[in-house]
Design brief:
Oligomer: single chain
Strand order of the largest sheet: 1-3-2
Mean pLDDT: 88
Shape: globular
Order of helices and strands: HEHEEHEEEEH
Radius of gyration: 18 Å
Helix content: 25-40%
Strand content: 15-25%
Number of domains: 2
Low-confidence stretches: none
């Protein structure tokens, strides 16, 4: 299992560094660029040391607060929360077309 996690980790770092991520909000692009991230057009490229530096700053534990405190979710430590991933807001077809996602898309994705 650790081998598989390492492969996923290295693939993610490769994507972040070589392919980059489209950031569509100008203010976000400015913030990442001010923090030393390479920006080309609307795309940001993160090198492995930058990614790991920011990951190291993440808290070990935190609470996701709901409008109703009964549904707050504590993340980290020995706690485990189960929640739906909710799917995506849009679907991009093989031909490049874009449409709003529907419940059937979520079911197909989760199946």
């Amino acid at each position: 299992m650790a081998d598989k996690r390492k492969k996923i980790h290295h693939a993610a770092l490769k994507i972040l560094g070589e392919i980059g991520i489209n950031l569509l909000h100008p203010e976000v692009l400015e913030i990442v660029q001010q923090n030393g991230i390479k920006v080309a057009g609307k795309k940001a490229f993160f090198n492995p040391s930058q990614v790991m530096d920011w990951v190291s700053r993440a808290p070990q534990e935190f609470t996701l607060y709901a409008r109703n405190p009964t549904y707050n979710a504590f993340i980290g430590g020995d706690h485990m929360e189960f929640a739906p991933g909710y799917g995506c807001a849009h679907i991009i077809g093989a031909d490049g077309s874009r449409r709003d996602a529907v419940l059937a898309d979520y079911i197909a994705f989760a199946a």
